[in-house]
Design a protein that fits this description.
- There is one protein chain.
- By secondary structure, the chain is of the alpha/beta class.
- The protein has 13 helices and 19 strands.
- The chain folds into 4 domains: 122 residues, Methylthiotransferase, N-terminal domain (Rossmann fold); 113 residues, Transcription Regulator spoIIAA (2-Layer Sandwich), CATH 3.30.750; 110 residues, Transcription Regulator spoIIAA (2-Layer Sandwich), CATH 3.30.750; 41 residues.
- It has a 6-stranded parallel sheet, with helices on both faces.
- A hairpin with a 4-residue loop joins strand 17 and strand 18.
- Helix 7 runs parallel beside helix 8, helix 9 packs parallel to helix 11 and helix 12 packs parallel to helix 13.
Length: 424
């Protein structure tokens, strides 16, 4: 009897990548491959890459070197955003056998079955303008919290971002398909779904780029009706696409959690203009104000970039002051890094790296204080916690509806269960 071939995956980057890796894993298992952990010996290693930070090249090379030392005869496959943006660069990395761009990643099994060791790296890619169609993805059997991809690509032209070049035009699944996937996940025992996409609020464009007669607000209304799913989270949504209707619906829903993640990027209107963002700080403050009026207990996460070209000390102080006054819960702070083929490369002056790093440190300290304050505000409240099934050295973790992490001694009967929990 022929030995079953094995495959291992490693994911770099966002929740969307995690959902797609899980789907690629299921595709490979359906082709007869046995799934292994990435640190185990496997016949094929797949690295799903990211392009948001400048570490993509470095991380990818390090992982390939690890595989080469451990299992030099194994096949190494690179896919994801970095693979679409710089396929030739990746193909030149010693040990890489296959590079799959955006249009080919979901044909992974076919490409791997055609591989032969020692022929050099095979590149299967195309111009991003040619990428169309929508491939539904969701993580399954990976964790209590499942990431469900409902949208892909982006039509925005933010001056710092390569995502449209890596993922193509905005396109979405249909509401009927998303509801079908949610129903399937409910039947599999999933309690919480995180809706993911590149530009989630732009949901409604079909695979060909034309609009469905659907939008994100309609989607959340239909998902709210799915029996068996007890929690939904909106992974990240642009402030200009987060409508008052969506906020009000979440406030009155028992299934959509009081938790938003809303990219800001800068608290300076001048820098927002240079970034080509589609809103100004006043709109952002208005959205946060409405959320907190309707849901005082709501967690709000913020993405912010420091060290963007042209960001003076005055601009940074504007951002700091704006965030300091804003009733938000935590920050995800990104240090600006130059990305090839972006408009931001034309903006002057370039901010020195040490200044960028110092600004990052300042905002991370602010984030720590924000999170401490938000958590203290909830002290004494009883909130519902969904516990994950992992035994971490005798402990288990879960999150409240408003995204406060709780840790407690491991109890197997609590795994994937929602428990009333008094916060201290």
């Amino acid at each position: 009897m022929e030995k079953k071939r094995s495959v291992a995956f490693h994911t770099l980057g966002c929740k969307l990548n995690f959902s797609e890796t899980s789907t690629l894993s299921r595709l490979m298992e359906s082709e007869g491959f046995e799934k292994k952990e990435f640190d185990d010996l496997a016949d094929v290693y797949v690295i799903n890459t990211c392009s948001v930070t400048d570490n993509a090249d470095k991380e990818c090379r390090q992982l390939v070197r690890r595989i080469q030392r451990k299992s030099p005869e194994s096949f190494v496959v690179i896919t994801g955003c970095y693979a679409q943006l710089k396929p030739k660069e990746i193909a030149s990395i010693p040990g890489v056998d296959l590079v799959l761009g955006a249009a080919e990643k979901f044909n992974i099994a076919q490409h791997i079955n055609e591989l032969a060791k020692g022929n050099g790296a095979k590149v299967c890619s195309c111009d991003i303008e040619e990428v169309s169609g929508f491939n539904a993805s969701f993580s399954q059997n990976d964790r209590t919290r499942t990431f469900l991809k409902v949208q892909d690509g982006c039509d925005y032209t933010c001056s710092f971002c390569t995502i449209p070049m890596a993922r193509g035009k905005s396109r979405s699944d249909s509401i009927a398909n998303v509801v079908k996937h949610a129903t399937q996940l409910a039947a599999d025992g999933v309690k919480e779904i995180v809706l993911t996409g590149v530009n989630l609020g732009d949901f409604g464009k079909g695979p060909d780029g034309g609009r469905h007669e659907e939008d994100f607000f309609s989607l959340v209304q239909e998902l709210d009706k799915v029996e068996g799913i007890e929690r939904y989270r909106i992974s990240s949504i642009e402030p200009n696409l987060l409508t008052n209707d969506i906020i009000a619906f979440v406030a009155n829903s028992n299934k959509f959690m009081p938790h938003f993640h809303i990219p800001l990027q800068s608290g300076s209107n001048e820098i927002l203009g240079l970034m080509r963002r589609r809103y100004r700080r006043e709109l952002y403050a208005e959205r946060v104000g409405l959320i907190k009026t309707l849901m005082p207990h709501c967690a709000i996460g913020v993405d912010v970039i420091v060290g963007f070209p042209g960001e003076t000390d005055k601009h940074f102080q504007e951002t700091f002051d704006f965030l300091h006054e804003l009733d938000v819960s935590y920050l995800h702070v990104f240090t600006y890094s130059e990305r090839d083929h972006t408009k931001a490369l034309e903006i002057q002056p370039v901010i020195p790296i040490p200044v960028r790093n110092e600004r990052n440190k300042t905002l991370r300290n602010l984030s720590y204080m924000k999170l401490q304050y938000f958590t203290q505000q909830q002290s004494g409240q009883t909130r519902k916690v969904l516990f994950e099934g992992f035994d971490k050295h005798g402990m288990m973790e879960g999150y409240t509806d408003n995204y406060i992490r709780v840790s407690t001694p491991y109890r197997g009967e609590w795994a994937n269960q929602i428990i009333d929990w008094k916060l201290r």
